[in-house]
Structures are given as structure tokens and as C-alpha cells.
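Section handout 9: paired folding examples.
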Amino acid sequence: MQIWDPDYECMPREEIEQLQLERLQATLNRVYKNVTCYRNRFKEMGIVPEDVRSLADLSKLPFTTKEDLRLNYPYGMFAVPLREVVRIHSSSGTTGKPTVVGYTKNDLKVWSTLVSRFMTAAGVNSDDVVQIAFGYGLFTGAFGLHYGSEMIGASVIPMGAGNTEKQIMIMQDYRTTALVSTPSYAVTIAERMEKMGVDPKSLTLKVGLFGGEPWSEAMRREIEERLGITATDNYGLSEVIGPGVAGECLCKRGMHISEDHFIAEIIDPDTGAVLPPGSVGELVLTSLTKEAFPMVRYRTRDITSLDYAKCDCGRTFVRMKKTMGRSDDMLIIKGVNVYPSQIEDVLFAIEGCQPHYQLVVDRKGALDTLEIRIEVTENIFFDEMKMQKAFLDKVEKKIDSVLGVGAVVKLVEPNSIPRAEGKASRVIDNRKI
């Protein structure tokens, strides 16, 4: 297996932790000096950077949340003067003011390097033609993969999101070998290819690099079978750097976090307590090399776990499991925690269910209700009532046994749930809480 940066990606654990501590101390000094928000928070807690003498001392520091970024909108969290910032990205701001992030020239170089690492781990090299079907703009995803691909030496097709039939035409004509998109959009492409009568085997596609939303192992199998590719997962978020925080190798047993640039912790999302290795909880990230926009103990709200065992690929960086969902997107139905990815796993295991579903949560009186709308194949949708009822009962029982909470399942005909060209919208929450 190819490794982009073996001197770092294969470092012994002791050396990784020593490097992390040195870079952490430098980062804390930088934010204490240059970021008013951090300086004030540290003073409130009676902490100075010199108090952090080991990685264990990290837990003494306050968390950073998305609310902190909104309160310091737009440039209050920057650690360098604006004249040193050469790139500005931001979130969509759908829940209020967007979060604004900046990059120095060196930040952009580091970002490209980190993306090159996980793309190389997924098997991409200088012979590849990479088609990027993420939206270009303030969203970090497309640019991260774009510059990482160019650093590797691959040819880049900056297609952008949407226009699915043209995406397929370009795959055919330009001999695309690697697809970059959300996993849900990859399914949309596969469906459209089937309608157009395009055989995936006639394409030169070999690998897909998918991120931007949680997805299950069942969806991975679905994409691999329908597109005839190897589907790999990668992880990142704009507030920390964008894509490049972590990515899978071809072993596909978790995403390697670039620990020379980030410290990962798993906390209890309710108490904030750091959990022992292997525990499932909320991922917290501290950046170690970001110049313009360093983050200390940023609460990602993503639910996952960490595996410190050495991978068969030779990399020693810790691996994070696929995210189960987000702690703030988690649904609580009748006191039970429910993640859309759990439901997705159930549906993919049932023959006849299509890879498109929507969860509708409502409240009747004091009780929460969950309705799961599932696209099914035409033969099931138009089946006689008795057969359809038996199928419904099967799905409802399986969901009840996995989730521990009952749900009403509604079968809908193919193509009736809106398709996503970016992140899929899985949940409609109608509760007035």
C-alpha cells in the first residue's frame, strides 16, 4: 500500500505523543497571545499555557463550541492579522450567522498535504482522473479535495455538484477514475446511470472518496455494487480544517486521524468528561499546526469511537470509526436515543427497500411519534395488500428490535423522496418542543 508521508504516518506512538505535546504548547501560547476569546476563557478558569505539561492536562482546558464561533463572528477567532489570511471559507449559516474560517499560505499547504494523505491511502495516484462533484464556493469540501488531488499529481475535473446526466457524460468521455461526492449523491448517480442504460463496467471508475455526511456499511456495499468501485470514507469539518482530518486506507477499518496535526478526544456529550479508549462518545479535536484559525478542544458533535491498534496498512495513527450521527442531530424518541444511521443499517438489510428514506418526527399530545418513509421497489409498492402488509410488519418489527422504539413505516413509490446533490436531508422534525 502506498503511504504519502511515511515518516509521520508510521511514527511510533511515543514519538507521536511527544510531537503532539510540543505542538500543543506552541498552539496554546499562540491563542493565549492572539485570540481574545481564548485568553479570557483561560483567565476565567485560572489557566495559563504553561499549566499544560502533558497531554493529560488537555482536559483542564475549556471546550470551544460553534456558539463561540458565532459570538466572535466574523474574525474574532483569527490568530493572525487579516493581511496574512489568503483564503476565507464559511459554513452555510442555516441556523444563524455562518462560522467563518481562515487560512494562511502555510495552512493551505498543510491542508493539501493532509488531503493527499487520505487520497493516497484510498489508492489515488498521479495516473488518476478525479471528478469532484462537491459544490465549489464557501464550502470547504471541493477545494480540499481539489488541491490534494493536484498535489498528488492527479488530473482534476472541477465539476461541482448537480447536473447528474452531465456528470455521467463526463465520466464516460473524460475517463474519470475517482469520484468525489457525498455518499447519497453517489447513489443518485448510480440510479441515473441505470435509467440512462449506462453500464458501470463501461466506465473507468475505480474508487470513490465520500464524505460530508454519516453513512453506513450497508450504503458502502450498495455504492460499491452499483458503481463497481471501492468506496472509501473521509472526515473533516470546516471549523478544524475541512476534509483532511481523517481518511480510510484500503483496509477500510476506520479513518486514520492525522495525529501530527490534531489531538482527538472522546467525551461524554452530556457531562463533558473524557472517556477511556474504545468508548463511544462525542469527538473533540484540537488543531496543532493551524496558523490563522487554531481550535482548542472543539466539540464536533459527531459521535464515534477511537481505535489505537496498529493498522495492517502500517500506519500508526489512531483510527476513528464511521460517525454514527451527531449528538445534536440525535433524535430522542420516547426517551430512546435514535440515530438515522441505525435505521439505514436496518433498511439496507431488507430486500426490496431502496437506499432512500426519510424520518418524520412529530408529537401527539405528550407522546413523540416516528414515521419512517421508505422507498421500495415497484413490485412491492404495487403488490397486493396482503403481501404489502406482511412486508410492512417485517420492517416495523426489525426496526423495533434494533432501536427499542416503535415506528410507523410508510411505503412510498420509487423516486418520491427528494434527491440530494449535496448532503441528504434525512429528518423532518415537526415537534414543537
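Moving on to protein 2 of 2.
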Amino acid sequence: MKLFVKKSLEQLMATPEEGASTLKRTLGAGNLIALGIGAIIGAGLFVRTAAAAGAHAGSAVTISFIIAAVGCAFAGLCYAEFASIIPIAGSAYTYAYATMGEIVAWIIGWALILEYALGAATVSISWSEYANNLLGHRIPFEWCHSPMESAIINGVTHSGIINLPALLILLLLSALLIKGTQESATVNAVIVFIKVAIVLVFIAIGWQFINPANHTPYLIPANAPPAILPDGTSYSYLPFFNHGWGGVLTGAGIVFFAFIGFDAVSTAAQEAKNPKRDMPIGILGSLVVCTILYILFSWVLTGVAPYQDFMRAGKEASVAYAISHYMQHYAWLSTLVTVAILAGFSSVILVMLLGQSRVFYTMSTDGLLPKVFSDLHPKFSTPYKSNMILFIFVGLFAAFLPASVAGDLTSIGTLFAFVLVCIGVMLLRKTDPDLVRPFKTPLVPLVPILGILICAAMILSLPLETQISALVWMIIGLIIYFGYSRGHSKLGNVADILPTATDFEKK
């Protein structure tokens, strides 16, 4: 058996047509753009903006967003080319199978669990926190926190038992995904409309309260006075990465993760009506829309309040703080922002669960995972068993562990996928240069190389403990691969009689 056996493009394209038990093509370009926006605009817009501005970039966080968007665009262009060529569920896993072989495909499929499954769990925990805030903390501490968390409230120590709100939102969204992809896309579109509308309202109203002095100087100067933290200590802007262009670059690293999620659009390729046209539109269109919103939002936020205030107010409370202290008579807008954050969390969880189930569906059809993950509902044509299993797995994490446990694992899995997709585009250009490409990544190999360098730099910038944790995760994945997947691989067991992709669609 060959570890690096590749799945030919001819086989990949034939996969959706095998039998009647297939995913339905129900999504148009608008649905795909909404899926991308749903995955990208979460708490990152409200939390990452203030964190990057307050500690590193100041008002120039707008430039940080532009730099981060360019980095994402390099990977997005590569995703768009692959999605137009291979309109199959599975995202980076499928692309790696076609260009780098089975073992690499397995590794990236395993890494995507970090992005989608653990990402959904982490976001559901945050959803629980914000929901309880909106309800005035009426849910007792014990029933909205994990057993690993405790707090002293009014002099009494409380310990968590189970995070029920997190379980509830996961259950509702899992049930929605089982009901149907089109239904899920419709609900996601409604959520996206609500949260984008609230963001636009904040931009429109907040623009009137911009103080030009807050944008001067635009970059934090080295001699900027220290910011006072909530505990009374001071934060110095003197270090290179806390001011000037060094701060802008560090800010880009922080807000980069606010863009994570656009790749989830590619997991729905097998359910797109016209994937060769609509997938590039969905991937790149969602990136463009979100970048514009991020820049406008950060411009208004840093204009309304001085960047030092975001260190004093706390990351999660920064937007509400800016509204209450600098936008008189608009307290209701602070409540709307909380609603937007909850809506953002909900759509992120929905798209993450959708993406993970589709990756598992494809891995299962290849034999690398048990058949249960590719069993489709007889009426809804959705991988309902996979959604049920994912609910249990993600739910256990959300119910009994704090969000901090996941750390940056979600990001490292995503960045690893970006790197492999960029490599894959270059490999396919070399091995099959005459292949019909409805969408072509421009300036190859420059664009993929820049994507690789930027994403690799982001991986290296993550804490050492996160890198070690990701390595341990990969070792566990390899044990499963050699213990189960290698022996059950449909492609690996017939590697010697497979057709090549050389003559695929050169007409």
C-alpha cells in the first residue's frame, strides 16, 4: 500500500454521482457568501479589534486589518482555484488527497478537527457567557461553567457543574444541520443580516462621535504614556512590537484570527448549484465584505475612544465601554452589540459544525473513517449520524472544559490547512498544467509562496505550548491512521490499478 497514493481528479469528480445517496446541490453564490460571512464575523470583530488597538496598533489597527486581509487573500485565492476545479466536500483534505497523497490528506483532515470541532466548542462556551450577560446573570454560575472553573460571588465560592447554555446552542444548531443544508443556510443568512445590520448601525451612529484627536498620531509613538490596566498596573508602549510599525504588524497577527473561517465555504462545494462559478465568488466575496466591515468598524471604534481606554476597559467590554462613555443617549446600542455578538457566535458555530461534518463525510467515503460518518438521512440527505456524533464530542468539550483549554489550537489547525492548500496549487500547476481551471490563482508561484510564508510565520508566532499540543494531536492522528485508516482505505487497497489524472478534462 502506498502512503502517498493520490486520488485522481477523475475519481474525485465521479464521487458525487455514485448512487442516489449523495448531498443535495442547493446553495447559490449568495448562500456561499453568507456562509463565509457567518464564519468570519464573530466575536473577532468586537474583541480582536479592541485588543490589537489597545495593546499594539492604536488607530492604525485599520492597517493591521488590511495586512491580515492580504495574508488571508493569498490563501483564499488558492482555495478558490481548487474549489472551482474540485467542487467536492472536504475542503483542504480533498485538495491534499489530489495533490500530495493519502497520508498528507489524513494529517490535514485531522488538523481540521482543531479548527472546526474545537472551534465550535470554544465559541459555544463564549456564547454561553454572553447569553448569561444579556439575561442579567440569571443563570446560576454552577450551570453555565465547567467543573474546572470557580468564582467568588458576594463572598461565596461557586464551582461550575456543567455548561448548559453551551450544550443548548450546540443541540439547536446540530438539529438544524440535520434538517437540511438549505434550511441551515437560510437561518445563517438571517443571522448574518442581523449582525451585519447592527455593525452598520454602530458604524453609522459612531461616525458622528469620532474625535479626530483620537486618530492623531495614527501610529502609537514610542514615547506614548503607559496605559493603566484594570489591576492598577501600567502597560508600556516602549517595546518595538507595542508601537509604530512593529505594533501594526503585531496587531495584524492578532486580528488575523478574526478572518479565520472563510475556508469553511469550500467544505460546502458538493452542495453548491454551480460550484465552478459560485465557489470562488463565495470564498473571495465573503473575504472582501468582511474586510471592508472590519476596516470601517475599527476606524469608528478607535475614533470614538482613545486606544489606551481599551486596555483599561477589558477586551470583551471595550465596545460597550466606548458606547456608554463616549456616545451619550445610545445605551440601547450596547445591548444591540451584545445581540450582534451572540448572532455572530451562533453563525460561527453553525458553519463550523457544517464544515466538520462535511470533512468527516468525505473522509468516510474514502474509507479513512467508519461508514457511520457518511450515512445520509433518507429524507433530508444530510450526514445526520455524523452531526449526532459531533454534537456529543463537541458538547462534552463545551459542557465540561473551559474555553482556555483549546487556546490557539483552533488557529494552528487552520493555518496548517492554509499552508498545504498553497503548496497544493503549485504542485497541481506542475503535474497537470493543461487542466481546465474555471478560476486561476494569479501570479503563481508568487501568491502561494507569500501565503505559505505568512501562514508559517503565524504558526511560529504561536506559544510553544500550543505548538507542542498540536504535535501531540498529530501523533494521536497518525496512530489512528496506521491502526485503522490505512487498512480500510478504499484508494490505498487498489493503488496499483488507479487511473491517473493526466487526461482529465483537457477538452
